[in-house]
Amino acid sequence: MDAGDVLLYDTTLRDGTQGEQINFSAEEKLRIAQRLDDVGFHYIEGGWPGSNPKDIRFFELAGDVTFKHARLTAFGSTRRPDKRVETCPNLTALLMAETPVVTIFGKTWDLHLDILKISVDDNLAMIHDSIEYLKKKGKEVIYDAEHFFDGYKHHPKYACKVIEVALAAGADTVVLCDTNGGTLPHEVTAIIGEVSALFPSRNLGIHAHNDGGLGVANTLAAVLAGVKMVHGTINGYGERCGNADLISVIANLQLKMNRSCLPEASIRQLTNLSHYISDIANIPPLNSRPFVGRSAFAHKGGVHVAAISKNPAAYEHILPEWVGNTQRVLVSELAGKSNIEYKAREMGIDLGHDSTISRKIVQEIKRMEAQGYQFEAAEGSLSVLLKKATGKFKEPFRLESFQVINAKIKENPPVSQATIKISVGDEEELTAAEGNGPVNALDNALRKALTKFYPRIREMHLVDFKVRILEGSEGTAAKVRVLLDSRDEDEIWSTVGVSANIIEASWNALVDSIQYKLSKDEMKVR
Questions:
Q1: Which single residue of 53, 98, 120, 522 has CA 20 to 30 Å from 89?
Q2: 335 — pLDDT class (breaks 50, 70, 90)
């Protein structure tokens, strides 16, 4: 390890699971551990084997896996105050996990000693005995000095005494924890500077929580102050407001601070890694997440788009592909001509050389978004709109009429029936269909009517349906926006419809969805 390198210690599988809605099975934890190992993480904290059967199961599964890069770590507490190290169940469980590394935490803030009703000397003895015992068992020992920064601010001599005892007992690394997440970056810098002066040439780490929104900032400040190991979780998952987000920590360290922590190829996997963990956690990815979020390199204002078309550095702090992300341009009421031309090129739509077409499209989008449309989340509808603006779009069908009836009989599930009449060229088609709701019935009837003329309609189906009330003050008469997600074997696309009538809004989104499908299939044939 070079002097400028930083060791990455991931605690997604332990501290991350303390966040709300995060719950991994033992098998899922193993998948995540293997993915982190593939990327090149140095330490992976698998869990607390003394706390629950699931973590015991994880370490049993992990025992049959060879990790190429990472050192698997078991987490637990020091010995209990009334137990000897040889008979303490905490330490016994840690040893049974059979990991090369053990991380134990102990109290550093004397406030907690009052809560636990143990003396300052007893606490020091618990820390010393536990580390010394684990070292004799051949383990690499990482000591988490819990509540270190709060403890240091209230009683610096005792907080430093804890560090002294841990190091004297043989701890390989002492991690300074901002457990309550309330420390500020300048405090982190100053305190670590003072600790480093007392314990020169010692390996220190940082474990920062995000309660003040500063988990990443405090971690970076600690590295600048000299720590060699950083703790955190993927996507910042964790208790309360979470832990320092290792995705942002890694990207900033490597791309901004020239501090190596992962191979360059792994940095390009950060977006994929973030989404992979989100999928297993069953938590939607945060669009605004720095570096890897869908919106991280998304541009909406016309001035911005005009600038990035010439030079992305005008509004992007790094190239998105460095972290495996992509640049996106959004179209909305804030759009300018540059946005429209950019999106048309992206979609393979030729607007020609007449700039008045782009301007007309901008005005039409602004008019429609004033009514409640939203094209940022409905690029299928945007594609149809752009194609119509060129004058080359041929309407595949016309609506003559439709009717939807909802029926509820006794305790039976409600049933919806839709009747629809459309025209395709000179032919009319009248058909009906049922569904488990009015939109489903309407979709079934429309596709039933169109399949005769466009057989490839069978390939598509709806995958999501969202409704949003736009004007709450109007009560049940308010306008609604309907967003539909549709898919075929090639892609997923989104369309939008707006009306004071939810059925009509759904119809508008449904028509756009089918028009998009037929239009893209026609372009394939060409």
A1: 120
A2: low
